[in-house]
Amino acid sequence: MGRSTASAGDDVMTPATDLLTDPRLPEAMARLAAPGGYEAFEAQVVGARFCRRPVRLKGSVVQTQADGSCQVLFDSSSQPDRVLLKACGTRRQTLCPPCASIYRGDAFALVAAGLRGGKGMPEEVATHPAVLLTLTAPAFGVVHRRGRDGNCHRSGPRCPHGRALRCGRRHADGDPALGQALCPACYDYDGAVLFNAGVSELWRRTTIYALRALGNLAGLSVRSVAKEVRLSYVKVVEFQRRGSVHLHALVRLDAAGDALLPPPEPFSAELLAAALEVAARRVSAPGPKDTTAGRVRWGKELDATVVNDENAGRRRAAAYIAKYSTKSTDDDGVLDHRLRAGVPDALELPEHLRSLVESAWRLGGEPPGEELRLRAWAHTAGYRGHFITKSRRFSTTFAALRANRQEWTVAQKQAGTAQIERSGTEDIDGIVSEWTFVGMGYTTAGDAWLAESIAEEERLPRRSLYEERQEALSEAV
User: Fold this and answer.
1) Which is deepest, 74, 236, 292, 361, by most CB within 10 Å?
2) Is residue 325 part of a domain?
3) Domain range spanning residue 276?
4) What burial letters (b/e) apply to 285-298, b meaning 16+ CB within 10 Å?
């Protein structure tokens, strides 16, 4: 509660006068004066894993005994406000950083297991060839950028609308101009939306072409190579500032068959990287009918890098993929939810991104866009898939990771004779849980303020330990 929330990045203590006049203070004091006080509310926040917008539930957990009697194991009426707080579980950093951090950790564990073993995956997968593939979107117009030399566009012609397609600035990393079109009238917003809509199909075809290219490079037919090896992958989507989708994928090469064995000779990581690059440059997917999109292709810039264990390469690759799993369409989370009735004028978006979203909404009202359900995906500028997906055999699943965590949590609580928390309505070993949804988020700004203070107190020791370790590493070097 002592930190200022007036502006992001300020690391100064709130003056006492500002604290006393903070409009959230009466609500926070009312919470402290409620039954159970700070300790009960703190336990509630910790139980919800410091979630910023927890789900509020009313209900109970009842166990039926052998003699037919019932024992109430937990009742939400014993909690502050008579509700149970449950973490929202979102993956989006802009919505809830604590829940997104857990999701990012699960994503890292999933990817790392596919590269190094563990979590039900054999450790031998660490010897399988693996490649980190980055695929970009084609150009749909000239946008502000940071070139390799740090400049934007030092030279360029005039467009048909009389604008000079050049910019002599050296944009800083957080410059809001980055990704914005130099001439919005020239930018192909419809093409950019239709590319985003076709990315999933384009990737599916890329994996097919890659297997064919692998066979060609190894001197085998398509049927023969399919009997020898199999591609396994995990991929994550990244929205660029210009609103187009880039794709990062970790592709692993396995021997064909049910057992996870390394591929035979001559299938190496270098051969896999070459095949992926050939496939990405040749593949295309048909655009929607009755549009000017034509065929959808990847952009000219792509990268296929062999991943190995040197300098913890596989761990760093897993962390690289995981960090994109919690990103949103925009940096501020304005488009974290679907649009129901067009693009409101009050929606604070950069003009370039707004034009993309408006194009997706308009196309969604026309026959080709209706088939693609573009209005349902206008908030993602037309992209219609999940942000992180994998092939079936690459690794474990998010569901398995969450189940393991839940089993561990329940075991810990049962060992300490603490409350049992379950969601849904189920009957397992005589235990019945019944819950009713009440709402989402804290009921007052004062509660949210207190919860953030509790979360900050929990983060401080970990942050100090991290800084100590970093300092020790720097001294060792």
Assistant:
1) 236
2) yes
3) 122-140+188-394
4) bebbeebebeebbb
